Batch of 3 targets.
Target 1
Amino acid sequence: MQLIQIDKARYRKHLNRVIIGCGLALAIGSLAISQLLIALFPDESGSHFHWNLIGVVITSLTIGWALNKYRTHDYMTEVVYVWDLKQALNKITRKMAKLKAAGREGNPQALLAIHYSYAGSRLLWQLDDNTITMDELAIKQTELDNVAAQFNVALNADDYKETILKQF
């Protein structure tokens, strides 16, 4: 997955609308379905927990289906890109201990994966205005650059492929 610059204002606007839309759909859909089930199948004991739960589950599945169906729509471009980037970074994070150990030994693939993780994190943090941890990330990037220079490894985030992680 290539790192690309995206329009922060458009991303935030679309993400907020998607979140609000999903929240409203969940609330309205769950209530509507559970009330319909309660009206059709009343319980003498007065406990309708199972109908409420079914309403939430059905609405959640419907929202998930709709998000998946429309993930290729132009409106969702930035939102889906960030979701996919977060998944890619999570895969690297799960292997970070092994990557750092291999990186200290000069493994160019490990160094590249770590570099991609830092570059992707920097992009996400800028989109989310999470500038508090940027200084810490800069320190880690400098350390990585020093190790790469020590082993004569050129790092370019565009060269990263997810298949690199299979060896770690």
Target 2
Amino acid sequence: MKTKIQEIQNNSITKLTKKCFQMAVILLLSFTSIQAQDKKAKDLLNEVTAKIKSYDNIVIDFKYSLNNAKENINQDSKGNVTMKGNQYVLNFMGVTKIFDGQKTYTIVPEDEEVTVSKVNEKDDAAITPSKMLTFFNSGYKYNMDIVQNVKGRKIQYIKLAPTSAKDQRKEILLGIDVQTKHIYNLIETGKNGTKTTLTVNSFKTNQPLSKNQFTFVASKYPKYYINKLD
């Protein structure tokens, strides 16, 4: 029987992938279709969007923290993600996920296994480019929140609150570096008391990428079992 901590750890990679893409959504999404609840928040998000759209690719090193005081759970992990358009490579908790725009390849060295799956547009939990471009179009209220000084950096937070009572997230706080207009962190608080924080340690842009950066090359894994789900 799985313990509570095992269940949470098993969901960490999926949650982290969603958070990375939530971050990408906020970076790339045009907010012109959203009814403004806070003009200053909207203007700042638009500035971030305009800045990020000028980049060919983004490479982020991050820290991921999961905390639940009630369950006495404190988990910290590091990882990195490379994004270009709707493609990405995520390295987290010893697992590599490659999305080439059509299929996701989950590479688990510990098991010597690669799981290949197509993106199902009808799956509400699936991470798809189309969903990522419409994620914040509806269902959220957003407002300017607190300002913090982090090692000399002015971080302005924007609070996003789900409007649906069925949403298990209480709120999302997005921290933006006022000077660079880059995302500093993303804090998600659940109704069950679980708080997950994605903090950007390094934010690089327009990096020289391999032509096979987002391509799964089977020859690199000759002894791995290829599990094709579709």
Target 3
Amino acid sequence: MSVEARRAMIVHAVLPLLMEHGANVTTAQIARAAGIGEGTIFRAFKDKDELFDACTAEALRPDHVLDAIAEIPLDQPLEDRLVEAAEALGAHLERMGALMGALHASGRHKLRDPEQRLKDRRASWKGGRRESMAAMRGAMVELFTPEKDRLRLPPEQLASLFLALLFGGRGLAADGDAPTTRQVVDVFLHGAVEAK
């Protein structure tokens, strides 16, 4: 097995552990989950910080959500396409949030030099996040495109607006007051006021 394949295998085995234990996961737990010896971890990664960074990068990658959106049949009604996409995007956000929350709660934010964390955050904004959002926006454009002749705005603008509504509303609702995915899509497509 190549070093890259071994690293990927370890990352995929460790992600669920990080969501459960955060940075407190032990090398014994990592080795057991990956089906390898503890020494193998450190032949693939120089230390746990590098492994955690690789896990974070994997969780932030939009590949899974892009694949899910690409599988949505374009011949179904736009509303159904948007609901499926919103659910896939929501699952992606929950996965990222669970990992970041577990790492933060276990003190991961305290483990690294604050200046280095700031540099890493700025680097992720410049490349990964922008590229990730552009890819998600592109996937959403494809969902709007079959209806382009009857849309009030171009698919590109609608995709951006939909993502802004979907992502911007997360965490703003009071407990028990959060709209369902279908409600978000309904308001997006039909507005907030009932037609008479």
